[in-house]
Amino acid sequence: MAARTKARKRALDLMFEAEQRGIDPADLLRERLARPVTEHALAELTADLVTGVAEHRAQLDELISTYSQGWSLQRMPAVDRAILRLGAFEVLYSSDVPEPVAISEWVGLATELSTDDSPRFVNGLLARLVEVKPTLA
């Protein structure tokens, strides 16, 4: 697994854990940076993704809800919510990775970790956000 893919996976793990524990992902990130639970330090990309989602969560959730066509955030599997929040942040706010590459990475994680229908759903929603990105201010 490539380093950036591992960093995304760790961001996903943190987002999922924060939701399951009912705590803010930024607080969990700070906790993990202060007291790591693995021998490997968190990658900068991991921290950037978690921090970015925490900072833009309201807008990300609104966009995901708007373009998910009939699926409320609460109805989605928790792992899909985390993937979509992270993927939406990356395609909307990150300029260091081409959007198709970012979408492919998040679809890959959905394939590995979620339901059979999730990869197609994640792909469609993130691609739609890329389409409407120029109209978002």
Automatic annotation (TrEMBL):
Residues 6-130 form the NusB/RsmB/TIM44 domain. One of its GO terms (molecular function) is RNA binding. It holds the Pfam family NusB. InterPro entries: NusB-like_sf, NusB_fam, NusB_RsmB_TIM44. Keywords: RNA-binding, Transcription, Transcription antitermination, Transcription regulation. GO terms for biological process: DNA-templated transcription termination; transcription antitermination. SUPFAM superfamilies: NusB-like. Involved in transcription antitermination. Required for transcription of ribosomal RNA (rRNA) genes. Binds specifically to the boxA antiterminator sequence of the ribosomal RNA (rrn) operons. Belongs to the NusB family. This is Transcription antitermination protein NusB. It comes from Phycicoccus duodecadis. The lineage of its organism: Bacteria, Bacillati, Actinomycetota, Actinomycetes, Micrococcales.
